Fold Dirigent protein.
Amino acid sequence: MREMPTPIFGVPVISEERAAESRLQFGRVEGDDSLRTEDVFLETDTWEHGDEVIGVLYLRETRTGAEGRVLLTATFEFFDADRTDSLSVSGPASTTAGLLNSGQLGLCSGTGRFRRVSGTVEFESRNPKRWFVQSRDDEDEVGRP
């Protein structure tokens, strides 16, 4: 397994799928979507997380015409006592037997502490998923979620 980049908020975050009822499957043809909601935690050790949910992740996979390829949109909402910050990423991703593989997505937009962030998000997928947000601009002031 290759070494992942240092994330802009200090540590990777882990997302873990909620109960099966959080997944919505709409079909098996091009353009059909699969939606699910996952809880987000700070990583405490490699692939481990604490009990505190620091946010929520909404994942949308849209089937493409290419076998084993989806368009993936991931929108994070990070909870704070004073506000909720969000971050959206998107791009093509690969799947094997209907399961999302690891990959890289582009940052699309953000609010709050993520409003000026640009760059990429790398993720490792095995449920839970590890997400690494890496900024192209080292001058961005981004704190831990």
